[in-house]
Structures are given as C-alpha cells and as structure tokens.
Automatic annotation (TrEMBL):
GO terms for biological process: defense response to virus. Keywords: 4Fe-4S, Antiviral defense, Iron, Iron-sulfur, Membrane, Metal-binding, Mitochondrion, S-adenosyl-L-methionine, Transmembrane, Transmembrane helix. The keyword Transmembrane applies. Residues 82-299 form the Radical SAM core domain. Residues 45-68 are annotated as: Disordered. PROSITE patterns: RADICAL_SAM (PS51918). This is Radical S-adenosyl methionine domain-containing protein 2. CDD domains: Radical_SAM (cd01335). Gene3D superfamilies: Aldolase class I (3.20.20.70). It comes from the Eukaryota.
Amino acid sequence: MVILSLRFLAEVPILYYLLGIMLCAIFVNTGFYLHFESRPINNPVEDTSEALDPDEDTSKALSQGADASKSLIVSDDPSKLPDAPVSVNYFPSRECNYACGFCFHTATTSYVLPIAEAMRGLRLLKEAGMRKLNIAGGEPFLHPKLLTQLLRYCKEELGVESTSIVSNGSKIREKWMRDNCQWLDILAISCDSFNPETNINIGRGDDGKNTDRLFRIAEWCRTYGVKFKLNTVVNVYNWNEDMVDNIEKLAPFRWKVFQCLIVAGENDDETRKRDARKFLVSDAQWRTFCEWHKHLPCFVPEDNNCMASSYLHLDEYMCFLDKGEGMITQSQSILEVGVKAAMQEIVWDKKSFLERGGIYDWGRSDMKNVQQSACGSVNKSGSVQNMGKKGACDGVNRKDIDF
C-alpha cells in the first residue's frame, strides 16, 4: 500500500502537490483560531475609577455648608459624614455660683437630666459621629459626681476621642483631679482678669482669689496629665488689660479669647437674667486687645462673627440651641427625635466651625514627649513649638485634619 501511495504521488504534477500542502496548512490554522476564539477570557477588567479619600472628602463636604449633605461619602465611620455632630458642647445644668454680667447661658432652670437618660443621649451622639464632648454650664463642678459619671461613661463605654470641661475654677479640688484625670483630656478655666477688682466688677466671684486658684489648677493639670486651657471674654472692664506676663506663666496649650456677645433671649436686655449690653466693647477695643496678645502662640481669638452658629450647643434637656442671629432657637430633644432630626431644626455653620479652628490638638497623645511651657510647648531639645496660633477667625488647614 505504501509503495502504491508513493507511486501515485510521483505521478501527481508538482504544482498540484504544492497547492495541496497550502490548503492543508490553511485548514489547520483556521481550526486552531476557532478553538481559542470560542474560549472565555479570564483576564479581569482594569478598574480605572479614582479611589476616594474619606478624610479629604468629608472635609470638603463639611465646608460646603447647607449643600454638604449631597456630597458622596465612602466610609463606615459616622464622624466622617457631612452633618456629623463632631464636637458638642453639653450644658447638663444651668446652675452657677457666679454672676458674670455678660453670661449668655443663664440659670433660667434648675433641671438636671437623670443620669441614665444623659448616658442614652451621649450614646446617640457618639453613634451619630461625635468625637469630642465639652461639658460646660452653669458651673459643672456644682455636680462633681455627675461629672465623674459622664466622663467615665464617655471614655470607658463609648470611646469618645476627647473630653473637656469649662469651669470657673472655684469648686475644683485636687482630689477630684487625681481621681478623674484618666477620663479628662482638657480642663478649661474661665479667666477674664488678673485684677481682683475687675473680676468683682464683672461678677466673677467676690473673694478676689481667682488668680491664686488659677495657678493652682494649672499645676494640678501638669501633675495629672490634663491639658490646661484658658477662656477669656473681652469686655468693657478688661479690654485694656495686658495679660501677657500671667498667660506666659500659666502656660496654657490654648487660650480662647472671645468678644463679648449678645444672645437674644439670654442676655439682651434688662428683662433677662443678665443684660450684657453694658459689657460690650467696640471693634476698635477688641482689636486693641488682640494686637497686644496676638504674638502668644496659644492665642486663639474669636469675634462675634466667628461664634455665631459655629458651635453645637446641647442644653439640659438635650435639645440643640441655635444662638446665632435673632432669637435663640431650641430643637426637640435628641432623646425624643434622634440626633439627625434635632440637628435639622437648628443652624450649625460647618464652614465657620472649621475656619475658627473647631478641630485642633484635643487629645493627650502629644503630651507624652512634650512639656507644656509658656503659652505653647517646648520639646526635649528646648526649641519652642507653636501649638496652634491662629488669627481672628482663622482655623486649621482642612487638608491637615484627620477627620
């Protein structure tokens, strides 16, 4: 058979022989192509979508004011949402032992929420995105046990990033500081003058010992690792007082300086608990005080425009308060309608909150290797660090915010 096949091939003209080889080659190649073409392609499609940075996106969303809620947020962290109550000022009681003439949160009630309800409200705030809780008043240290319960709950149960208290300093005791320092990040003391007579004229006590207490509390803060802060209201009695020397000695990490403010419904006329009109300063007087003190690294001034609607205030019933323009507005309680619904009933200017420096070094981690010193900080090498000097209405760079 093989011999016959070879003989047949020998009789075929060479042209037909070559043509047959070419046809066979084409047939084989076509078969391979069809075989592989019919198989599915397993290579993944490259995702060219741009990754979103949740922190940067949140900061942009907050700065968009009323339209922030329309922004896209890719995060499971509620504090990164555009309307999150990141920093809340809670007034658990309006009661106070001082009678400051310009006070804008006066003792119109003596109500104090039951501790279980207060804790429930704090949990709602944390779940909505609260990172910092500031407790003010009134005078918070009129209720020291309540303070302990609130602070401990915030830190141990809720894991709140930062807790702080604003106090007039008259009721603070070292034992309380020693027993509660582990739950407190910042202690702010209201200090409007280092002159006993000026303090008495303002209504900030009547014993003339404000300065002595202030230095004692500053030392306790250093001893127990709590960041020490000062708050000052510039008014008609202190606008021309040079406080530089005493501020440098006290060495607060932050000195908030406010222009005396009128809040309709609280201190706007003689029918209220306080009438702050006689305490107001002119813009020129305000600028004079700022010029004298602006070189201090801890100096953080806030004029009336900065303060209006840039704070989230929560009253003794856990209702948000809008102390911006016009008559003070009160929301429904977050205990009844929730945080989001209550916040929609007031105005919170998120842009102004950021611009005034609402986010700052509010934790205690930076105290491990830094010793507090003259209105700023000194590192181990002895060089001075600026811990947040800001001009009027200035704030931190939003790109640097760990939001």
